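To: structure subgroup
Subject: Chain for Friday's discussion

All,

I'm putting the inputs and outputs inline so they're searchable in the archive.
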Amino acid sequence: MTETSHDEAASFEADPFEQRWIVVSLILLIAFMVTVTIAGFALGFQVPGAESRVDPRTVADSPPWNEPGLRDLGGGEYAAYVISRQYLFDPRTITVPVGSSVTFYLTSIDVQHGFLLQNTNVNMQVVPGEVSRLTVDFDEAGEFDYICNEFCGAGHAAMFGSVIVEADEGGA
């Protein structure tokens, strides 16, 4: 039996092919960490979550849900209260000016629904008994359709609406 020095026993011997794959794997992990950090902080991505809890049997009768729709909070900020029920969103149309910041509050009174706002990063689950909240800044004019992207029954295809962002009349 031969003696090995401490340096030889501590060295890592791997095939050069394996060493390359280890390096590639570490580079990919670092790249993914950087990407997630940039997306989370620099681009301001938000994760929708439960804002509060409500009773789905009585929510439509209590403020602010008894009058769903848009509330002007001043300074270009709005709150949109949207109720999901089979097979519609109430309200179906929301109109805001360019440069608006809209906080969506959504709940369901019957089954689980989805809320996907086209051409934005908004994609929320709408669960009975929970209020989901997410804020969107609308910097350009246009129509942003929203749909239910969670199968909720036979009339699921009829669940849609739109956010209309109007250009400033006095602007360029």
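Points worth raising on Friday:
The helical segments are 6-10, 16-42.
Residues 1 and 103 are 74 Å apart (CA to CA).

D.
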